Amino acid sequence: MSWQAEGSRVIFKRTVVLIGALCVLTVLLFARMFYLQVIEGAKYRTLADKNRISLRHLPPVRGLILDRNGQLLALNRKTFTATFMPENSPEKIDDVLKKLSLLLPISDSEKTRIVKDASKVRPFMSVRLKDDVSFDEMSAIQLNIPDLLGVSIDESRIRVYPAKEYAAHVVGYVQLPAEADIIKDFMKMPEVRLGKTGIEQAYDDQLYGTIGSQRVEINAFGRDVRLLETQKAVNGENLQTTLDVRLQKIGLDALGEQTGSAVLMNVHTGEILMMVSTPSFDPNIFNAPLPDALWKSLNNNPKHPLVNKAVQGLYSPGSLFKIVVALAGLEGGDITSASRVNCTGALQVGNNVFHCWRRDGHGVESLKDALQHSCDIYFYQMGQKVGVDKISQMAAKLGFGAPTGVGIVGEKSGLLPSREWKRREKDDEWRIGDTVNLSIGQGYLTATPMQMLQMMARVVNGGKAVRPTLIKPKGPPVFESLGFNPYHLALIRKGLSAVVNEKGGTAYHVRFDSHGQKMGGKTASTQIRRISAKEREEGIKPQSQLPWKERDHAFFAAYAPENKPEYALIVAIEHGGGGSLTAAPIASQIMRKALELKREDEGKK
Amino acid sequence: MSLFLENKYYYKDTDLTLKERLVNLSWSYIAMILTVVCIGLAVLYSISNGSVQPLVVRQLYRVGFGFLLFAVLALSDLRTWLKYAYWLYGISLILLIVVDVAGMTGMGAQRWLKLPLIGQLQPSELMKITLVLALARYFQGSSEQDVRSWRFLIIPVLMMAIPVILIWRQPDLGTALMLCIVTVALLFLVGVQYWKFALLGGFVAIAGPIAWHFLHDYQKSRVLIFLNPESDPLGAGYHIMQSKITLGSGGLFGKGFMQGTQSHLNFIPENHTDFIFTVFAEEFGMFGGWFLLGLYLLIMVAGCRMALKSRNFFGKILALGLTVNFATYVFINIAMVMGCVPVVGIPLPLVSYGGSAMAVVWVGFGLIECVYVNREMILTRQVARTE
Lengths: 605, 387
What we know:
Chain A is an alpha+beta fold.
């Protein structure tokens, strides 16, 4: 019997150890429960709430963009998307697709995509079958719904630009936000489109409105259990712009095949009536995913169709800058109506010889003559007399070197050189040759067509610091006076009028008299490469014989009516050849039609 | 001594009447078990959002069936089990092999055997009982000297190893692990020296990394994700994260009966089977969890007490083995839902919805009661040898 007793003793001892182990394990699990439910309890309660409640966004309707007369520039069109919810269908997606393809065309690659999508989502989540189905297709589907269980038509909105390429740059377009642009949570939603360029981008916040939300209690499968709270979306504000869609069309048509831009502005209010850039594009293409080839061709095009050249193109203003030099001279007392310069076609300054565009010279010229003929020698001389400091100051007053703030994201500010600038940036002294170059708007100086237009407007509106705008101002705008002597401004306008209206003026060939309304202006052609002495001897080739990329840029800044300026217009043609030859006729055409339109509109009233 | 030889299985009168058996039953044990069963039914009622259909009703059928098994076994003669222990083990082993062969042709994990009448039979569940029976039968005739020798341990280790390898191949890591734990616990209880366990521990530490290579990918990922569940919150780590969220959000006192949000919104996968403890702990909080776990501990300790009351070695080992089996279920499941051990698919006995495991624990309780009812029975060493 001893073995039995012994065995019992051992098993008793060992069982006591076992019970002890069970108790220890239980206490450890007690402790773990205490840790999870009490110490970390708050954290898990927060996570539990997140689990339970899903925040869903309600997209607002984007505001409309209108032109000054209420014509739509951007609107939202309801579109219908065919979707499929596997849960509601007794059939497999392949069979549904087979039937559906009898009703609407679906490409094979799309079919593959749909089958793939369908395999990924949960049965109660829908799969996109086809975007933007036509009304006929929609009716066909709806008629056959009994055979197409699970297929439904969802409503959504796409942005439509009825003016198409006529207002593409200034109005801009919306697109799916790029990865880097996603700064708020709602931007991740599939239907969110953000303004990418132009007014759509600059006024995105206003146009977008405020997103609404729904708090929904969901279960682990994402199914709604019940609606907890709804915050309605606030639709975007409609935006009335200062643009005139008719002028957009006139402007774009006038530019034709040329590469460049044209902007028309009211000189008193700053309202931009027209802003076009060529080549243009149809912003509606960005509604659908852009085919790679198209995107590449748009991006790699040497004429940069996607760039708004009116605010993003930077050029030397050339002879347009003579207006600035003239005003600086008059205001500073260095130029008077009696000042005369004898133009012989060339001027020696230091070791360099500077030429006038007219090889045989203009003879003795007054300020008015110099503007009318765009005499370079006159401004070489006067520029030296006025000095870089006064020119620089005047240019700054007239808006060079700073963005105009017209309200387009990515507007360039250009470069207005000065003594300090050169010392700071180039670590070099300002030299007399620099002043001579600056006097005719060449050298370091660059500006956008928008800045050139603003300068012209400020000179012809009586010296008010007008600033351009694309949005209709609420009240009559008040712009501070720049304090110019009206007599000096009148002198300059006399010269600018002569450019167009007097024989010998550089734009005399484009003059018009439209019911007594005439135009004034200034031509400019800016070299984009230096003409060597050798070329000069051999005789300068006509611009038309040069390759496109080497031709001069051509500008014409105009205002009208000549006697009581209302509009200012800039036409900037890249590699146009010459301001007088290329830009002036386009400007003349646009201005005449703008005046006619204005008269028509006023007549109607 | 001759007396023992003459009376083959016992020397004291143990042909108890039915009345004597009923009197001998531990009614407090039954009461504790039924309390846990009621808690389980209440949780299922809550999961069904206050409906007895379909979970509670079906579970009641199973409880009824389980209780029937329990009653029959509790009132049975212990000597029957001693007599047929090896046979039952052999049958389970054959069934395991059948499943293994059939499984070669099937897809994925093959654990079920379809039988007429009984329906689905899981041989690995059967093995949890019959292995304990066979080991108890084996140690019934052993002396302390036997237990201390290496050679004597070869057979019990083989009895464990063969089914473990077969079940591992299915693959059902959880059950294989449970069989190992129960066998090691039994070896410990019969008096195998401590240093041998130390040796075993050392061996496991070395062999563990090697065994890692034989794990299936999904088993590896379970272990890895267990170590860092936040690394994959929507994939395989989802179970553990959601389980901890549900349990943790319960706090001290819980959200109240039928007020659990996570479990009711289906965030808990398998909320009525393996993860049912989280549902309970969400609604009844830490104190509720402690109460249920405490109840489980009481059942285990009662099982041990009943084993020690038995005057025969077979009964003691059988009852202790089955108690360890039950304890393994409880601790692995609760540790699993609290993120202490990897997810291995072991249900919470008596509470989780499901038939197979339920039947196993009821059979276990029935045999423990049977041991207790026959506690005065003395079985001899020779009996075992000559049988």
